Amino acid sequence: HLVNRTYKDKAFAMAFHNEDIYSIPQEGELKKIFKWETYPAYVTDMRDCGQLNEGTCGATIEKSLYDVPTHCGVSLESKYDATSSSATVKVKLMSEKKSSYRLAVYIVEDKIVGEQVTGTELRKDYTHRHVVRKMLSANVRGDELGIIGKDEESEKGYQFAVDTGKWNITNLYVYALAINEDG
Fold first, then answer.
1. pLDDT for 1 beyond 60
2. Which residues contact 15 (CB under 8 A, 6 or more apart)?
3. Secondary structure element (H or E) that encloses residue 128, with its range
4. Mean pLDDT throughout 118-145?
């Protein structure tokens, strides 16, 4: 809720579940890379990680927004074919400086109502926010785009099947993270 309330349209949250119906196969690898020990945890900009409590990630978001300059832009286009229940995603990256880039792309679903254990209580009507449903990139560190020069653009396409039996298409989003050589 902190991201939605305080950093609306500036920061975007992704929730990775473990050992439940919402977890993805790559969750364990991400946990090893970022060394989080308990849930909920946060990772900001593929760099800073910690235990998530109300307000704990605010400092890293502030650092990301104001102390770590952005030097590329990302745009994406997605199309859904209801007949085949498939989607295509095209991601473009424009660099303001010469750098080596990778691209990590995720499918995120918001507002999933389901079970959640909070403390010792099992809630059946819990609203899960920003749940990562699928990783489109070949690995958690992202797909290699190579070196992109100043004012140059690179493009990568993805295609995936939409699990219409489990996912609500109206609540699906595509998140694309551009990752440079500094992480």
1. no
2. 22, 40, 128, 129, 130, 131, 132
3. strand 121-128
4. 90
Q: Global pTM?
A: 0.88
- CA–CA distance from 155 to each of 24, 143, 144, 173 (Å)? 25, 11, 11, 19
Q: Which residues pair with 42 in a beta bridge?
A: 50
* H helix intervals, 7-118: 27-34, 58-66
Q: Specify the amino acid at residue 63.
A: K
Nearest to 173 by CA among 118, 138, 136, 140: 136
Give me the residues paired with residue 105 across strands: 176
Structure token pair of residue 149: 């020069």
Q: Which residue is associated with the tokens 């489990």?
A: 166
Residue range 146-183, pLDDT digits in tens:
999 999 999 999 999 999 999 999 999 999 999 988 77
